[in-house]
Amino acid sequence: MGQSPKSLSSVCVFCGASNEADPALLDAAAQLGRDLAAASLKLIYGGGGVGLMGACALAAHKAGGDVLGIIPHFLKVREKRLDVVETIVVDSMHERKIQLFDRSDAFVVLPGGIGTLEEIVELLSWRRLDLHAKPVVFYNVDGFWEPLFALFQHTVDAKLTPPEFMQSWASVRTVAEILPALYAALPVPESDAELGDKA
Length: 199
Hints:
With 199 residues, the protein is of the alpha/beta class. The protein has one domain: 3-Layer(aba) Sandwich (Rossmann fold). Helices cover 41% and strands 16% of the residues. The protein has helices at residues 23-38, 51-62, 93-102, 114-128, 146-157, 178-184, 190-198; strands at residues 10-14, 42-45, 67-72, 86-90, 106-109, 136-139, 170-172. β1 (10-14), α1 and β2 (42-45) form a beta-alpha-beta unit. It is globular, with a radius of gyration of 17 Å. The termini are far apart. The mean pLDDT is 92.
């Protein structure tokens, strides 16, 4: 941990694994997969073939993108492991999350359920503890994540979380904004920062 990537080569996508999701969300996940492939960014994801997760991975693969799935052995059937992409099978959810984190330069959070919430809260808690500075971008279509952001703000208002925590992520409302937001969140190289100071 403690990484602060200077460039992007791989992006982890956290998202729902339900085929009952709104078709518009499935389409958005697929578009993100195609965008990652077009940008030559490796998709790192949870290894399943269902829901937004499967839509994103399959679209990236069909567009010629590099895709790596990481899935616990006990979810291979439940989440319908996507065998057409490279997949690492691990023993536990904890190992899955560590591998997802270690192999990724940045994170995108699409709409999801309790599993997605668990993943992103841990990721942001690590950010709060200064264990990493990797970009995090929420796809906040139709305000999907506003209740979560309000809860975070509630903890700030209660003086249980520092105000600067609210700057730990970016939020966008269209798929087209996701990759630019990731790049914008990368740290400015020291040489560029020095040139800016001298200007």
